[in-house]
Amino acid sequence: MESGPCSRPAEPRHCVSGRAGAGLAFPAFPLSAAGAEPGSRIGTVAAVLPAGGCGERMGVRTPKQFCRVLERPLISYTLQAMERVCWIKDIVVTVTGENMEAMRSIIQRYGHKRISLAEAGATRHRSIFNGLKALAEDQPGCELTRPEVVIIHDAVRPFVEEDILLRVVLAAKEHGAAGAIRPLVSTVVSPSADGHLDHSLDRAKHRASEMPQAFHFDVIYEAYQKCSDFDLEFGTECLQLALKYCHRKAKLVEGTPDLWKVTYKQDLCAAEAMIKEKISQEICVVVNTKDEESVGHLLEEVLRNELNCIKVTSTVLDRTSGDIENFIDQCYSFICVNVVSSESRETRKLLSILEESSLPLLYPVVVVLVHCFDFTVVPLAQKMENLVWIRELAKEAKGRNVLLSGVLLNHSQRLE
Ligand SMILES: Nc1ccn([C@@H]2O[C@H](COP(=O)(O)OP(=O)(O)OP(=O)(O)O)[C@@H](O)[C@H]2O)c(=O)n1
Ligand SMILES: O=P(O)(O)OC[C@@H](O)[C@@H](O)[C@@H](O)CO
Q1: What are 247-299's pLDDT values in tens digits?
Q2: What is the distance in A from the centroid of ligand 2 to the CA of 153?
Q3: Which of 238, 290, 294, 375 could make an SS bond with 410 (beta carbons 3.0 to 4.6 A apart)?
Q4: Distance between CA 20 and CA 278 in Å, rounded?
Q5: Which letter does DSSP use for residue 161 in this model?
Q6: Which domain holds residue 334?
Q7: Is the CB of 51 under 6 A from ligand 1?
Q8: Which of 74, 51, 41, 23 is nearest to 359 (CA)?
Q9: Contact call for residues 366 and 332 (beta carbons, < 8 A)
Q10: CATH number, domain with residue 158
Q11: What is the sign, positive or negative, of the torsion defined by CA atoms of 180, 17, 88, 12?
């Protein structure tokens, strides 16, 4: 545990769960609203995210949990995904002492809430154990509560959704332990001592153990307290500890394909591709005033016809009265069309709304600024000035995790 009272940023101003901005704040504890059995109630739920590894198999200097994906550290995506689930009260992240400062600045930079830090251990099990100790011990000045159910989830598994978290928590509530599983992709074989095939396992009868997992806190804490040094040193399976030391047979819950763990460099590329795909699932055309509304609708129609698998909407910024929750849900891609004004103040306005909104944006926001110019009348100097201006704005926006690019459109030609 970090020295002194656990380090814990302010309580969240609000948590997002389900459709962000739809006012559907997930009921904190009576989980029946989430499809659980009517009347099922869970006590406090907490999460432990082991993030103390060095990422040796990634083959880069930076530990993989801190590697950037689209300008943002991988761990920040996982934290954000956990924070979107408002019935998880405390999130304990275990990091090494040398990475504690880096972790704190990520928490501050991306506005993470409900996060407490604990010292990692030399192995994953030891890190998890330290996270559990942080929750178990009533440290003076520490706001952590000993939970009824604790989720354990690798910090390098960023694509975790509320549904699977709920399913493993409800299963753990009933069975004492539960974990996500996935079909095996390759067949598992057992080699003989001299490196030949001894036998192979029937792939259909086996599954890969993934994360998240969940446990009655008392069960997994007791298991870790009884755990042998050998298991702490070489074990990789928390479910096995619950079975071996507490005789609890975990309920296995079918997980979704995106629960995989970022381990090798290609996994980072895959993570980036998945985030880009999530970002590009919806495009919102933004114009500033009612006068430009028809341009927005025209572009919306053209894009909808051209990009038939993408949802396209349009909005007039003035009419949203800055209430960005109205149109940021899954939408992270905006096309700001400036037909009338040339200073693109509506782009700045969108950027400041994004910055001022307390909405925890799960993915970077992409803004394409389309400047319509009549090139025949606009002097070259002004065109160049605009290009420089867009580049400066893009640099500024990047610091807010907004990826901004600009298009200068010569509108003296007739729009087809
Ligand atoms: N001493 C350790 C080792 C691992 N982990 C965490 O456990 C998770 C899953 O472990 P793994 O994928 O093995 O991460 P690394 O140990 O960093 O990877 P490698 O084995 O390639 O070094 C990661 O979030 C990792 O940071 C941890 O908290 N403490
Ligand atoms: O073994 P590693 O440290 O690479 O990763 C830990 C994984 O084994 C673990 O996350 C799942 O298999 C579920 O226990």
Answers
A1: 999 999 999 999 999 999 999 999 999 998 888 888 888 888 788 888 888 88
A2: 10
A3: 375
A4: 15
A5: -
A6: 280-411
A7: yes
A8: 23
A9: yes
A10: 3.90.550.10
A11: positive
- Is residue 357 within 8 A of residue 16, CB to CB? The reply is no
416 belongs to a structural domain: no
How far is 23 from 45, CA to CA, in rounded Å?
22
Residue burial 154-180, b: 16+ Cβ < 10 Å; e: rest: bbbbbbbebebbbbbbbbbbebbbbbb
**Nearest-CA neighbor of 93 among 176, 156, 43, 177?**
156
Does residue 360 have a cis bond before it (omega within 30 degrees)?
no
- Contacts of 199-207 with C-beta under 8 Å, sequence gap 24+, read 207/181, 207/182, 207/183, 207/252
pLDDT at 15 over 60: no
Residues 269 and 284 in one domain: no
Residues 370 and 391 in one domain: yes
Q: What is the largest CA-CA distance in the chain?
A: 80
- Cα 198 to averaged position of ligand 2 atoms, centre (Å): 24
Distance between CA 87 and CA 42 in Å, rounded? 9
Pocket test for ligand 2, best of 64, 153, 261, 263 (most atoms within 8 A of CB): 261
The ligand minimizing its distance to the Cα of 126 is: 1
368 part of a folded domain: yes
Q: Is the CB of 99 under 6 A from ligand 1?
A: no
Q: Residue 191 domain-assigned?
A: no
11 pLDDT more than 60: no
User: From the centroid of its chain, how far is CA 93?
Assistant: 14
Please give the radius of gyration of the chain, using alpha carbons only, rounded to the nearest integer: 25
Indicate which residue's Cα is closest to atom 18 of ligand 1: 55
Per-residue pLDDT tens over the stretch 226-261: 999 999 999 999 999 999 999 999 999 999 999 999
Pocket test for ligand 2, best of 156, 234, 236 (most atoms within 8 A of CB): 236
State the closest ligand 1 atom to the C-alpha of 121, by its place in the atom list counted from 1.
1
Distance 255 CA to ligand 2 centre (A): 15
Q: Are 147 and 137 in contact (CB under 8 A)?
A: no
Nearest atom, ligand 2, residue 261 CA: 10
For residues 241 and 338, state if they share a domain: no
- Residue 30 is given by DSSP the state B
